From TrEMBL:
This is Class I SAM-dependent methyltransferase. GO terms for molecular function: methyltransferase activity. The lineage of its organism: Bacteria, Bacillati, Bacillota, Bacilli, Bacillales. Residues 2-96 form the Methyltransferase domain. The keyword RNA-binding does not apply. Keywords: Methyltransferase, Transferase. Gene3D superfamilies: Vaccinia Virus protein VP39 (3.40.50.150).
Amino acid sequence: MLETGFGPGIALTEFAKNHPAVNLYGIDDSEDILTMALNRLNKVCGLRQICLLHGEGSMIKNVQKMFDRVYSINNVTFWDDDPVYTLKHIRSQMKACGKSFVRFTRMRIELLTQRQKCLGDSWKLFFIIQDFSHIEIMIKQTEPNNTVCAAVVNQ
């Protein structure tokens, strides 16, 4: 499993504790965040199945590993300058029928329902361009802002 933009490593740490047999990978472009995540992971004894990488999401193409699950939570706005380019490289590292989940939340501004739908439609197009299938875009009622989520399958 791969997390793009792992932040302080909270999700990876919790998943590793609950699923010790699963190998986990994370990539993030912030050295400060990488240090923070490593500090968090080092405090938890026995977590040996996590590999953290420093770099842009598209750099995952340099890893000799195929993933069956990829997720990204609240960080796609940091994906290089071209999210389609990043998706291309993430998809190239996914196993056939691998699944991906992306969640987007705008933290600074309240999005109107129409703008959320546009965001979802834009990402649906990005997924189509990269030949993902079974694309599902959802708008979840959350506080303080609604959340746009996408779930897709690698063909």
